[in-house]
Design a protein that fits this description.
Blueprint: E1 5-10, H1 21-26, E2 32-39, E3 42-45, E4 54-57, E5 61-62, H2 68-71, H3 89-99, E6 103-109, H4 114-119, E7 124-126, E8 132-137, H5 142-156, E9 163-167, H6 190-197, H7 202-210, H8 215-231, H9 238-247, H10 249-257, H11 259-287, E10 294-300, E11 310-311, H12 314-317, E12 323-327, H13 332-339, E13 351-357, H14 369-379, E14 383-387, H15 394-409
Helix pairs in contact: 5-11, 6-10, 7-11, 10-11, 13-14, 14-15
Amino acid sequence: MMTPRASVFLYPWDVVGDPAAARRVAELGVRQVTLAAAYHSTRALTPRHPRHRVVTARHSAVLYPPDPGRWAGRALHPYPQNWMAAADPFGEAAGALAGAGVEVHSWVVLAHNSRLGAEHPETSVVNAYGDRYPWAPCIGRPDVRDYLVSLAAEAATRPGTRGCELESCGWYGLAHLHAHDKTAGVALDAAGQVLMSLCFCDRCRDGYAAYGAEPDGLRAAVTAALRPYWDGTAAAPPAAAEAVEAAGTWARITGLLGEERAAAVLGWRRAAATRLQREAVAAVRAEAPDSAFRVLLHAAPEPYACGANAGVDPAEVLTFADGLVLPCTGGPAARTAALEPCVPHRRPHTTLAANLTVVSGMGGSPATLAADAAHAAKLGADELRLYHGGLASGEDLVRVAEALKRVAEGRELGI
């Protein structure tokens, strides 16, 4: 069993303007930083920065100066940031980290962009009721896919980077960490979330039809399946709920929509997501500085999943990507569900990274990091990702450093 390689996530604003930041990161015991190059809007704490405590990223943006030649004449293009004074925040932060001996990989958020949806509403996911999700670009649209592939190529291969991680490289849907969100009044289980995330724009309607589902009939079936949620009658009796959980989310959706409609939905969405993933990986590789540049995807091993961890088929995606970053925060069951389906399909030199939240205030558990890392390693993870080095408190980081020392010494891994 190998000691996992660890990387911590950072934003450029965690480093720019803080002369001690890069050294502090290196002293955690990580070999790598996954540094945001393209990111969605957010409001973030910076607990240790000498100049500020809160950074408001007002819109989705690239955190470097985009190439005017690449985007000239294109309706869909990235928006540069304007809340940091640095001309190239990513480049400045990457340089400081490299100077401290830390390898830099880029962190690129793709199909999650509220400003794009606000300025180009036709690009957004449209649910079964006709509501648009401006934060969720529809990846079934050729113009959206072309934009995301170009963005991946530019943002991932910033000077000085040794690899990249592509987040939201697939379908996005209803779930969204949105300002003043008011969507929890009705409890949607995993199946309800998927149904509310299905897109019915013209392109997706054509896609469903190509896979054998009449679009209007499918839309009616989706709204009928969702009605019990709105009425408050969707909860199953305990025995039935246990059976549904054992069968899985997609089995429940199949039961609600019927086998033919469910197969058409999955067929179209899986094809669209896989095409984006293949093209994005290929575009990054075409611009990468050398063959050692690694391209990983943030992913969930269920093809129907959507969100930051895009749904993938491990048997397919691991034939062209260099690895997956998998959500492993929580108990042993969460890590098993994320890692176990992927291990049989890994190729030589393919990475499976366990993503563990280490911010106590965001549900993380830095106190159990060493044990959680050991469990992930036993399941097949060969690297760790720690979310998030900039957001964590000082006490959280002390625990992270202690845990990584234990992992490096093999005390938790039994080596």
